[in-house]
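pasting for ref
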Amino acid sequence: MIIEWHTHVYPPEEAAANSAFWQGRCPMTLENVLDAHHRAGLAVSVVSNAAHYLRNKSAADELKAIAHWDDYAAKIQRDHAGVLYCLAMATPTGGPAHLKELERAIRELKLKGVLINSSHKGHYPDDDEARGFWELVQHLDIPVMIHPPNVGFGEERMKEYRLASSVARPADLCLALSRIIVRGILEDFPRLTIVGSHGGGGICEVIGRLDYAYELQDEAFFLGSYAPMKIKHAPSHYLKMMHFDSVTYHPPAARLVLETVGAEHVLYGSDAPPLTPLKPRAIKLIEDLGLPHDPVVPLGEVRLLVDVEGLPF
């Protein structure tokens, strides 16, 4: 059984509104997801919306767009019950109205979790304004998928050679996950279920550097302050509290994630659509890892992440 954690859909209205960017060919349609799902022989796909279009909206229009996605996601989930399950969408620093919408999406619409971007208009999910969000999702006991925005920091140097996708977005994700750790989010909210997309954007490679920056307090004075101290353990302790998907497209990178946090904290994903041909490549990556159990079973305790009745996880 293959359970796809990472695939995207845009609401038709947003795909049409961004037609110039997509040149009239937005691949993140429900039809494309279903076609790719069946071609790959998947059992379940968890659908989310990275909603890159939010960066061009006013604060008021952001909330309307989020509510529209939540309603559309609930319809997808109802119309394709047992096959597609959907995540809500949120901006953690949006304030009380955004929290109310997220609670509606989970309690009333029965969506299975929430996707947030690793940054949004200069805000990161460790900002003090986001604490209400973390309190709510811990109370709701839902997974939080953290996904990079269209472009993160340094976008002025990322406009050529598709570097925004290949370099800037993983870097933004790695930064966000690192800040969540060192700013004590998992210390204050230890029951959170956080899923870093794209294998964590390289955080498993740099975790040793995060550890020595914490451990060598006085000796590393020249690196800058580590105040205020928010955590009681080395960053690697909190990293192992997180989950990650397998969207790396590079077997050594996938192995690094597995070796760093353990297979029980890794989920299969493809991030396809939008680049639909990557789905079979993502499945082959898992097969080629030579794991000791069925190579296409998702690599984690998925029951912790998505409550799907009638399936053995």
